[in-house]
Amino acid sequence: MTGSLGGWAWNGLRPASADDLGIPADLDATTALLTRNIARGLGDAVALRNAGGPALTYRQLDGLVNALALRLPWPRTSRIVLHLGHSVDFVLCFLAVLRAGLVAVPVPSTASLRDAADIIEDAEPTAVLSGQADHLQRVLGTEVAELVRVSRDGDIQTRLAALYDRPESRHRQGERHRTDDAYWLYTSGTSGPPKAARHRHQDIPAAASMWADHVVGLRPRERCLSFSPVTHSYGLATGCFLPLWSGCEIVITAVTHPGALWQAIRDSGVNRLFGVPRHFASLVEDAGLAGGGHQLTSAHSSGEQLPPQLQERFEAVLGIPLLDGMGSSELFSNPISSTVTERRAGSSGRPIPGVAARLVAEGQVIVGPGRGELEVASAANAIGYWNRPAATEATFRDGYCRTGDIYDRDSDGFLFHVGRSSSRFKVFGEFVDPTRLESAALTVIEVIDAVAFESQAEHGIHACAMAVVLEDGADADAVARAVRAACADTVGHFAVPRKLYVVAALPTTHSGKLRRAGAREHAEANGRSH
Questions:
Q1: How far apart are alpha carbons 232 and 11 in whole angstroms?
Q2: Which residue among 85, 359, 463, 471 is the one 20 to 30 A from 36 at the CA level?
Q3: What is the CATH number assigned to the segment(s) 425-529?
Q4: pLDDT for 85-138, tens place per residue?
Q5: First vs last Cα of the chain: how many Å apart?
Q6: Model confidence, pTM
Q7: Nearest to 208 by CA among 250, 243, 249
């Protein structure tokens, strides 16, 4: 299904098109993920399992998806919200919705009921499949869509009896096209209200062929576990699409305690790990819980900048590479990635084969080394936002997606994340990039995590402030002095945090990334100032 990418170098001048990648015009993405693997002899290979639970082969999963798709009664292109959490049921329903020609709209697994209701009201779906239907109904109040109750007990067909018990009402007919909407991903809301990024069927095999095949090198029957929930961008890519494309086995676990995670990794024989830096920091802190060892061969981080010190420690303790990459809800998978042989400490990597990327500053494209906002062109990019014409016009232009991320590029094309264009603020007339302050704070050994933000000092003058998470037993006053000294040395005295709050945890988005919006309020409400 994919063409050769030999004609595209790391910094190609144009992206590979859907035709270049050999993606059929009449594509149904589930054909690329399921039917294709059965045809190449992987029908009896395990496709999906809960850690410690029963397995589904590719042939069994394809049969369940097809039977469910035939029972979804809603008109083609209807939007179907999936409020099912990080689960096997979500994967099955998601694939069935796509096969039926409908549009899947996931609700992040950690979303509150109010957040879920906001997504439902914004997406205007025809139906909602929910494992918390009664609670959700009370929050929604009025009936905004058909609400289908999904049980949490019994086997798959019992849990989804509200759908499987329906008569077949759909036939796979009518034209399908690779540019049809397949799913919408609500952005994580790192710095503002979430928006729904619209993705097509072609985006799935495009990203999978470029990243899984040519960068990660996934092989059939490898076992993959994503700490990132399948209900958000990185988890959906690495915990569903990419493993299925490659004929791998997906291991799903809802546990979060490091001991339970290590047991799932060990007992399931996991080979590849995917997550955000905070996941890997937690894992390496409790590496002693790995017990009898592991079969891991690589780990892949995304979502936010991977601190070099965490990468170094992880690799030293576990003996496997931890590779950084950059993606987003709009870009789907990781169009900027590191590989085992092509990486630099502190770098997100380089544009992957098939992707075109550029840095833009003051309206000019930067040639060679330099700093600018990263823009990415790819056959896997979203086509815009639902019902947000101004945001769509501002973000998607000339075939490129503006990421809002500021990067430095070195002479070899490696990209180093500097910060967000929207997260900078001014102090004493100087722009402050909070990520530089956070990196400085993390050089203090007792600091586990940090977030910098704008605050107000005397007379309403703008100043820097910071919230930090410390190791148990750390002397908070001593750490505060060390953090301020590190910020002064790294950024300058004007940027030294006037207030430094010690908190138990930082606010995060549904996907586990740092939530900058509201960081000040969180620190003031939950922290102690030093």
A1: 28
A2: 85
A3: 3.30.300.30
A4: 999 999 999 999 999 999 999 998 878 888 899 999 999 999 999 999 999 999
A5: 59
A6: 0.83
A7: 243
